[in-house]
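so the lab meeting is tmrw and i was supposed to have these ready like two days ago... anyway. pasting both below. for each one the top line is the aa sequence and the line under it is the C-alpha cells. i havent really looked at them closely yet so no promises
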Amino acid sequence: MRPRRIVFTLHLVVGLAAAIFIAILGVTGSIMAFEDELDHLTHPALFKVAPGVPLPLTQLGDRAIAAYPGHRLTGYGIGVSPDLSSYVGLQGVTVYVNPYTGAVLGTRTGPTWLSQVHQVHLRLLAGDVGKTVMSWAGVALSLLSLSGLYLWWPIKRVSVNWQKGGRRRWFDLHNAVGIFAWVLIALLAVTGTAIGFESATRTLFYRITRSEPLPPPPSIVPVPGARLLTPDEALAIARVAMPGAAPINVSAPAAKSSYRVGLRFPEDRTPGGRTRVFVNPYTGAIVQAESSRTTAAGTRLVTANRAIHTGDLFGMPTKILMSLGSLAAALQVISGTAMWLARIRKAPAGA
C-alpha cells in the first residue's frame, strides 16, 4: 500500500472514531473562549456596577454574612475592572456585592451553564474517565492535523466550488477550512493535549527547562491571643510585595494556613492570574511569594501553554482567533463525516 493511501486510511479511521468528541471539544471550546464575557453579558445584575470608591473587604464580608448568617467566610473576589462587582465566598454560597456601596447583588450556590460547558469540555461530566477520553481526543486532533496537511499538500485546494454538489462541495470545504485554520487547530490540539496529560507534561516542561516548581507554602504556627490581620491588611502587604500587580482574590486563612492573595500583572490576561503572595495572618510576614514574571521557567511554560489554548495570550484578538479555530475543528468533523457518508452511499462526487 502506498504511503499516501496509508495516511488517508489513518486519517479516515481516526477521524471517524474521534468525531463526536472532537466536535464536542470544538463547540464547547468556542464558547469557553468567552466564558467570563458571556457570564457578565447574561447576568448583568450580578456583575455590572458603576465605579466609585471601593469599600474595605471586611465591610463587604460583613454585609454578606449579615445577609446570609451561619455561613463561614472563605474568601473574597475582586473585579478585574472597575465596572465589575466583587464577591464574598461563604461556605456553600457565593455572594456578589457592589464593591462601592456594599449592596448585595445576588448569589450562586451551584454550577452555572457555563461551568457545565467547561466540565463537558474537560471531562464530559464523567470524571476521570471522561477526562481521559477528551485528552485522547486531543491526541486524535493532533494526528488529524498532521495527516490532513500531508494529504492536502499535493492538491493544495483552497477554494470551494459552490456550483458543485455532494461529495465534491464537502471535499472543497474540508480542504479550505482545514488549511486556513490549520495553525489554530494544530495549536489547540497540541496545547489541549498538553493540558489533558498535564501530570506528565508538567514534569517534561520542568525537565527541559531545568527548573523546579515552587513547593507548597509552609504551615503557620498559631499565636494564641494575637490579633489576626484583616484581609485588607493582608492585601496591602501583597500590593507592596508585587508592585504593579492588581489583586483579584484573597483566601481567608484556616487554622494553620496563610492569607493567599492572588494578583495579576497587566500582561497576564488569564482571569485567575498567576501571581500569589502568602501572608502570615498573625505577624504580617510574607511566607511565600511567586511572581508570574520571575517564577520558574517550567511554570511559565505551563502558564503560556494554557494562555495559548484559551486565547488569553493577547486578550480579545486571540480569544476570537481561538474561538474560530475551535469552530473550524467542529466544522471539519461535519464536512469529513459528510464526505464519508456520500462515499459509502455512492453519491456522485461531482468531480
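ok protien two:
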Amino acid sequence: MGRVTDALEEDLILKLVGASQGRRILDVGCGDGAPAAALARRGAIITGVDTDPRMLAAGRERARAETVEITLVEGNAGALPFPDETFDVVLAVTVLCFVDDAERAVGEMARVLKPGGRLVIGELGRWNLWAAKRRISGWLGSPTWRAAKFRTATELAKLIAGTGLTVIARRGAIFYPPCAACATLLAPIDPWLGRCVTFGAAFIGMAATKPQQ
C-alpha cells in the first residue's frame, strides 16, 4: 500500500511542477529528499531545506545512493534562509499541516519565488478515512498526529491566495481507504478521480503562480 500511495502522490506533484530541466527548485521541508531526488533526475537544480539535521543527513545519503546533486540546508519554513526571488519553483509536501504559522510559511515561499514562478503545495486532505484514522491516533496520544492540522482544497487555496499568488490547478489523490487491497484495486482510477474532484482525497495538490512585476 505504501508503494502505491507514494507513487500516486509523487506522480501528482511532478505533474504540478511541470518541466524541471534547468530550473531552480526549492523543496521546503524536504525530509529525506525523495521528491528532491526525483526532480534532480529530471534535470532540476535542487535545494532542500529542513529543520531536522537527521532528515538532512538522510537526504545526503539518498543523493549519494542515487548519484544526484542536491544542496541541503538547515532552516525553518517560517524564515527561509534565502534572498527574495531566488527560485523558479517552490515545493512543499506535507509541511503546512505541521507548522505553527502556515500563513507565514506560505508568505516566505512566495517571497523567495521569482515573478512568474510556480508554488506547488501537497497537503493531507481533511475529509477522508486516512485523516479520520490519524485524528484517532492523535486522540490516543500520538504527538505527531495530535499536532497536525488537515485542510480542504478551498482552505489551501485561500491560504495561497492570501500571499497574492494565483491558484492555477488543484488535484486530489488517494481516494481509497487505508487498506492494501483497496489501494491495488482503485489505484488505476485514482488519477482520473483526482482531476475531477478533491473531496474525499487523502492528499491534495495545488499549483499557483506569482504575478509578473
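from a quick look at the 2nd one: The chain has a mean pLDDT of 95. The domain at 2-209 is CATH 3.40.50.150 (Rossmann fold). will dig more after coffe
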